Amino acid sequence: MKLTLKSIFTLLFILVVIQSTVAQKATTYAIVVGIADYKYIGDLTFTVPDAKKVYAFLKSQAGGAVPTNHIRFLTNETATKANIMKEMNYIFSFARPQDRVIFYFSGHGATGFFCASDIRINGNEAENALWHDEIKDAFKKCRARTKLCIADACYAGSIKGVDTYKSVRQKGLGLEEKSAGIAVIMASKYNQTSGEDARLQQGFFSYFMIQGLSGKSDVNRDKIVTIKELFSYVWKNVKTYSKGRQVPIMFSNTYTMPVAYLN
Hints:
By secondary structure, the chain is an alpha/beta fold. The chain has helices at 5-24, 47-59, 81-92, 132-141, 165-171, 204-216, 227-241, and strands spanning 28-34, 71-75, 100-110, 113-122, 125-131, 146-154, 182-186, 196-197, 202-203, 224-226, 249-252, 258-261. One of its GO terms (biological process) is proteolysis.
């Protein structure tokens, strides 16, 4: 078959478009943290199973089939403050503007910080605390325009105080509401603990979050779970299951962000 100059240019144009589309395809980078065994403060029970289920979801088709080298999964002794920040900064550095980054944490938390596995509490001092400002900085440095932060954090023992809803909105873990595609979901209000349940073998919040991501929150049956659908499902079920003792909160500048694609 004889190719004309016009057909050659047409083929070249198609190849360029295909290559550009492949190059611009969005992907996900995530760090998933679950801590049950703490060195210096009280242990938790189901935080690692929570994190494992989140990791498995991200690896699934519904979660985007995120490649293994795009996820950092840290539990217990590997989830030190230094390691969490190192891995978070490293993995987020690969994200392009069209990509999505996710930070999930399940463990203890207190005013202004999450508790890494090597945290030490001395009166009002917290050594090796994973400060919200540090999470903020990691997100700010990241080029991705879609950012999701989910925290199933317990407030217990000698760790006193949590952020009020107002201060969570103001601090926002550094995820300003004017930014594009930002959502922050926390497992409970400022004056509540985040419960675990032996029957569920998970935390209340993470259990219903996984259920929602698996399709139970897809109220319009369009096979896409949005952040609004997910939060509405989680909020209702956690509040009901805990008899009002735990109520999740969210702030976001988008309600259409897709978080799961169902088969």
